[in-house]
Design a protein that fits this description.
Blueprint: H1 3-12, H2 19-29, E1 34-38, E2 43-49, H3 52-66, E3 70-76, E4 84-92, H4 94-100, E5 104-107, E6 110-113, H5 122-136, E7 137-139, E8 148-152, H6 155-166, E9 173-177, E10 180-185, H7 188-198, H8 201-251, H9 259-270, H10 276-282, H11 289-311
Antiparallel strand pairs: 1-2, 2-4, 3-4, 5-6, 7-8, 8-10, 9-10
């Protein structure tokens, strides 16, 4: 099961805190391919979902909140029967239809949630956003790039959801894609906050564990890269210094160096792989890394002048 599917399965089993929360969540859940068609004297509310737990949740809310009697039908979406859908069907009398209109709008047999259904309580805002994520949400696996999104068709709804999540200090971005609106989060801490707000506690623990491992791995990689770069610089400097000192020895110019520089030159030849710090510890008395670096620069400068003189 993908991470997104596991999050949705967990959220589908979250119980609302109060009756008002159940109404708010149901309003958002009815964005799941919901249609209303007219029968002889009644109406047929049809809601199609991909997750059986989500189908049970919608069935339960319709029964517990409004006393509706629904049926659940399993549909095969592919010939191989590997992709199933679940359709919750509810016959509504005109009176029942008026009752459910307290949480939804109906326009040309299409259903949309009322925007002010979760205005008052923070628990209702949580439930509303949870229902919207179950209907139109997706979150990427934390091993990859951090990304959580909703796709809605109503700009006012997008702005309202952004406002609701803003009350929990979650910054939801909105961009328009043709006639739809994409709401997304790309910061890992913000995604973790979102999972906490909607009640996906198991998914939050998994997300945080993977986030910590990724952070540790990135820190180790940065440290290794830094040490590799420093080692490469040390080797390059050692090769350059050894080449200069060998020229001094072969030309006899090394005898013209001051004692301190001559001593450092021979130690470098004896320990070509040593760092400046290690060279300083070999000297008697020991010398600091900065002191060795100064002498080495002086050695290269004096060596360059003496070698130029000897060749001329």
């Amino acid at each position: 099961m993908s991470f997104a599917s596991s999050v949705q399965s967990e959220l589908a089993r979250v119980e609302p805190e109060q009756g008002c929360c159940a109404r708010a969540e149901l309003a958002a859940l009815l964005l799941n391919k919901s249609t209303l068609s007219q029968l002889a004297n009644d109406y047929l509310l049809t809601v199609e979902v991909d997750n059986p737990a989500l189908g049970r949740k919608i069935y339960k809310y319709l029964r517990d909140i409004y006393g509706f009697q629904s049926s659940v039908q399993v549909i095969e979406k592919s010939k191989l029967r590997k992709n199933r859908g679940y359709v919750v069907k509810t016959v509504l009398t005109p009176t029942k239809l008026e009752n459910i209109k307290e949480i939804i709008h109906i326009n040309n047999n299409l259903i949309s949630p009322k925007l002010d259904i979760a205005e008052v309580n923070s628990c209702c805002k949580r439930a509303y956003v949870r229902g919207l994520f179950l209907s139109r949400g997706y979150v990427n696996r934390p091993e990859g790039n951090y990304h959580l999104e909703f796709m809605v068709n109503d700009e006012a709804l997008a702005i309202k959801v952004q406002e609701y999540l803003g009350t929990f200090d979650i910054d939801l971005k909105i961009i328009q894609r043709k006639k739809s609106f994409l709401l997304y989060i790309k910061e890992s801490e913000q995604i973790a906050d979102f999972l906490r707000v909607v009640g996906a506690n198991k998914a939050l623990l998994e997300f945080e564990n993977i986030r910590i491992l990724k952070s540790m791995r990135n820190n180790v990689n940065r440290q290794v890269n830094c040490e590799t770069a420093n080692l490469a610089k040390t080797i390059d400097a050692s090769v350059r210094q050894t080449e200069i000192i060998n020229n001094l020895v072969s030309t006899g110019v090394i005898d013209n160096l001051p004692y301190q520089l001559k001593e450092l030159a021979y130690i470098r030849l004896d320990y070509p792989e040593a760092t400046l710090k290690e060279l300083g510890e070999i000297l008697n008395p020991p010398l600091s890394k900065s002191g060795i670096a100064y002498r080495m620069r002086k050695l290269e400068q004096v060596a360059g002048e003496l070698l130029d003189t000897s060749f001329n």
